[in-house]
Amino acid sequence: MFQRLDHRLGHYVLLLAVAVLLYFPNLGKPSLWDIDEGNNAEAAREMRDAGNWIVPTFNFQLRVDKPALLYWLQIAAYESFGVNEFAARLPSALAALLTVLLAYELGRRMFDPLTGLLGGLVLATAVMFTAAAHFANPDALLNACTVLTFLFVWHGIDAGGRNWLIWTGVSSGFAVLAKGPVGLVLPSAVTMFFLLWTRQWRRLLDVRLLVGVLAFLVVIAPWYAWVGVETKAEFLRGFFLQHNVGRFLSTMENHGGPPVLYYLLVLIVGFTPWSPFLGLALWYGIWPAIREPWTRFRGWWRHAVAGESVTIEENDQGQRTRAAYRLLWCWVAVYFLFFSISQTKLPNYILPLATPIALLLGRFLQRWRSGQIQLPAWAAHANFAGLAVTGVCVIFGLLLAGGALTLPIKGQRLPGLEVCAILGVIPLLAAAIAWWLNQRRLLGRFVTVLALAAVLFTGAVAAWCPEQIDTYKGPRALVEQCGLLQPDREIRVASYQYFQPSLVFYCRREVKRLEKECEALDFLETPLPVYLFVPAPVWEQLQAKVDGPVRVLGVHRDLLRNCDVVVVTNQ
Helix, strand, coil % (nearest 5) of the chain? Predict the structure, then answer.
């Protein structure tokens, strides 16, 4: 299959078809996930309604968590498709699609077209990457800008030009507009280590570096300066000190974890269904990066023992390939170490690691299928066994999560989710077919089977599982059930001991957060029509203290609070 598509247009068509199939079906059907999606989608809606594209707000208060690029793109999507979940997530889906094409171009230029294609397919079908494409937050945008930056870096270094310093300034600027300083600091660190490792640091001694810095400032300075003036520097203090320095130095919102193990587990789970091949891909990817010093040492030792002079030569293609591996490994090492050291940890933080790992995996598969590397029989069998185990884990995990299996394991049970367990059959069948093809040395065909299985598995997971889980998410269901979307009516909405950001998005108005019991009681006695969101157990204790007529208007299970939530009104 890949040989017939061995040209750029064919590869683009294939990757675009896969990305569209994975990222766009049911993109807007599930309700928003709290807390990030609710915060981001509502902030963009409030900026749009206020006609203010500079100062982000959430629940009509200044929001200092993120820069404005995502909001701007969401506002543009709202204008085209209306204020809904599809428009809120569309920028992430488009950014993921663009990233797949950029990863393909990077792999093609570093190695060869089929490596780029396989790397793009691995990236597109990795569960963590597909999840990011369906999530309304800035990570997919940051990832796209990061991959674009490294594409400029590699093109400039490989072609021997200097203008890459300018273009990386532009792409890094957009990365900083998407997420913040990590969009500049980490790509710069990767590039510095790579140039030091390859003894090319003199490339930075060029006047175009200053032009690149100027291009970077031209991109970021207008908005950051403007929002600083508009908020009297309150946004800048909150964003840089609390949500960047603070998140790195201390654990925020209980998002912590062990330094190394946390992100190792994230990568193993996140690269499903390709996870069984990660170990060998990284093993066979590290040796080309360090081959030169090892080869030189081995040659020096062998010739020194024989009393001969040492001459070790390598052709240009070998040096180029080694440099490509080194850039990918610098990319992996810097991002992994930085976020492992960071005290606040979330799975989406290491999304920029997906591209270099996918390219290493694609390169491994290409070398395997073309016979450039010969795997020991046990290693090949271990890979296929791992893929089969993945299928078993998917079946077991979804049956357990859906309540079809009863084991003494803590966690919520979501009846209905067990029907998704059938998806685990896909990796099982793929493992059996790929093993059979490998035994007959039909390596090209077994890689095709793996790619097709990954598309089917990840696409089915993305389209089916969120819909099953959505029935347990409370905010949209409660708002629809109680008819609270009344933008032209003067009503008041509040919450007590329960709050999800998407409540504000679905109510299209401020949701006041009540902190004390007396505030909740006073709120229900307000002469105007009022609606109060409160957990059912809390309402059982509160209702006897209410002075006046009230009634429960709606009730629904909430996934994050793991309890029923009721809507109480004085109407």
Answer: 65, 5, 25
For tokens 């329960």, the residue is: 498
One digit per residue, the tens of pLDDT, for the chain of length 571 reads 445 656 889 999 999 999 999 999 989 999 999 889 999 999 999 999 999 999 999 999 999 999 999 999 999 999 999 999 999 999 999 999 999 999 999 999 999 999 999 999 999 999 999 999 999 999 999 999 999 999 999 998 887 777 888 999 999 999 999 999 999 999 999 999 999 998 888 888 888 889 999 999 999 999 999 999 999 999 999 999 998 898 888 877 777 778 889 999 999 999 999 999 999 999 999 888 776 554 444 444 454 444 444 333 455 677 888 999 999 999 999 999 999 999 988 899 999 999 999 999 999 999 999 889 888 889 889 999 999 999 999 999 999 988 888 777 777 788 888 999 999 999 999 999 999 998 888 888 889 999 999 999 999 999 899 989 999 999 999 999 999 988 888 889 999 999 999 999 999 999 999 999 999 999 998 888 999 999 999 999 998 888 888 899 999 999 888 899 999 998 8
**Cα–Cα distance measured from residue 228 to residue 226, given in angstroms and rounded to the nearest whole number:** 5
Token pair 């949500």 in the structure block, residue: 243
Q: What is the DSSP string of 53-93?
A: SSS-EETTEE--SS-SHHHHHHHHHHHHH-SSHHHHHHHHH
Residues 198 and 153 sit within 8 Å (Cβ to Cβ): no
The token duo for 518 is 């007396």
